[in-house]
Every structure is written in C-alpha cells, then in structure tokens.
Amino acid sequence: MKSSRRKFLTAGLGVIGASTMPDSAVAAETDLIECLDYGRSFICNTSTTNAVRFWIESRTILYDDRAGTKFVIYQCGSCKSENTFVKENLLAEDNYDFMPIYGGEDLLILRRHVDARETYRQLRKATDVWGEPNVRLQFGKTVSELKTFEQIRDVTATDTPLVAQTEITNQESGLRCLMEYPIKTMNISLDNHLWQVDTGPIAFPDLTQRFDPPVDSVRLAFAAFNAPHFCDFVIEQPTPVMRDGQEVCQILHYSNPVSFAAKNRVLSVSDQPNA
C-alpha cells in the first residue's frame, strides 16, 4: 500500500464478529456486492441504566490474508457530551463530540474537544459501558454497481441511496481492508461528464501492522475519489495552528491529504427487492 505525503498515525481495526475463512473465501469475499442499508442499521445496547441506540455510519472489514481471518468494525454516528436524564442543563459545559466505534469485544470511544487532548481516545470493553451490544444490521435488498458516468448521473438525481466501497491492500503486511460508507456528497459535472465522491467520516485503518486490540488501528477520515483505481483521504490528527510562523496550539483536524491505490465501487442500494 503506497501513499504520497504519508506520515501515518499509529492505530487499527476492529472486530465485531471475528471469523476464520478458507483462503479462497477470503480472496473472493470482496467480489460479492453486499452492503448495509445505512438508514436501518443500528447498535442497540442493553444496559438498564441507559440502553442507548447508535446509528451505524460506516463499516470497515479488515482481512488478514496470511491468517485467513477477517475483523469487522462499526463506526457509529457522533453525538454531543450530555448530562443524561437530568431535568435541566442537558449538554455538558465543556462540550465535545462523542463517537463510539465497536470492534468485537472492544469499544473505542473518541471524545473530540476543541483542542487535541491526550484523552481523545479511550479503549473499553464494550459490555462494561452500556451492557451487551445488539448489532442490528439490515442489508440492501437490491444492490447494483454503477460503472458509467451515465449510471452514476442518473441515480444521483433520484432519492436512491448511494454507498461506496473502497478496498486497500498492503502487500508487505498481508493486510487489506474494505471500507464501506454511505455517499453523503456526490458531485456531478453535466457539462464535462465527470463525477466525484466526497464523504465521511469513515473508519480508516492502519494496515502497516497488526494491533491489539484491532479496533485501536482506526482513525477517522474523509474519502474522495472520481475513478475506480485510487482514493484520496484526509485523516483526523493533531494539527498545529500557526500564527506568524509560530505554533500557538494544536487541534484535532482533518489534515495532510494522502492518496492510495484502491479499488472503488459506487453502489445504488434499495430496501425493495427487484420486481
């Protein structure tokens, strides 16, 4: 996996439902067109104190082609820090974005304050936070790959959901990943017959090494692509704020764009079966 201008951040991939597959199945699985229905997929927790439900915002599958295994992570939608179930002052004063990312038995919690704090990332056992997570997945009943400009243009002009799948491989480590995410923004140039995906956040894994727990390998990123063979990413990371050539502080920001060789697919997804 080659990248331009890449100084990678240390982090990883998750596991809700780790499994072992025959080598042939590992190689062939990403040839299947199957994707989540992102309007109807949730993680429902079971704590009697707070049985919180999280919307699944992206799914990342990490394949270890040497071991013949795969690991799945589910990145959930973010919310704000809150004082839950109180009578007033529902939002915390020192407010921050709160995002849970589930990976098997482990949970990565991101607390994104106004500045880049060391407490941004926290690893917990999933059952210790909101009880046993119940992963409620719905898959698109009709999934079609859009391969031409005309197909992408026509579906973009409708209310049919679009989903992207981006596969990246690291030959040195033997790891690859399939990142799947709803396309929230699609650009269409009717004049020039061009299209471009720009969307996020997604759970972007470091494939250069294996992590324990695997969910600790991910960072948030936004993805952009307009061709099937590469994808550009801007990754959330501590970023210096400069004034008159001097660093005045650091914030968490999507910065330092990088580009990877990739396999991209644009999918149209319907919750209705083919007639």
If you had to describe this structure to a student in words, what would you say it looks like?
With 275 residues, the protein is mostly beta strands. The protein has one domain (3-269). It is 7% helix and 49% strand. The protein contains 3 helices and 19 strands. The chain has helices spanning 23-29, 127-130, 149-156; strands spanning 3-4, 19-20, 42-44, 53-64, 69-76, 79-80, 97-103, 106-112, 121-125, 134-136, 142-146, 162-170, 175-182, 186-189, 194-205, 218-225, 230-243, 246-261, 263-270. The strands form 2 sheets. Strands 2, 3, 4, 5, 6, 7, 8, 9, 10, 11, 12, 13 and 19 form a 13-stranded antiparallel β-sheet that branches. Strands 1-18-17-16-15-14 form a 6-stranded antiparallel β-sheet. It is globular.
User: Helix and strand succession?
Assistant: EEHEEEEEEEHEEHEEEEEEEE
**What's the rounded overall pLDDT mean?**
90
What is the makeup of the main sheet? 13 strands, antiparallel
Low-confidence stretches: 2-17, 20-31
Number of helices: 3
Distance between the termini: 41 Å
How would the global form be characterised?
A: globular
**Structural class by secondary-structure content:** mainly beta
Number of strands: 19
The radius of gyration over CA amounts to 19 Å
How much helicity do the residues have? Answer: under 10%
List keywords for this structure.
mainly beta, single chain, disordered N terminus, 275 residues
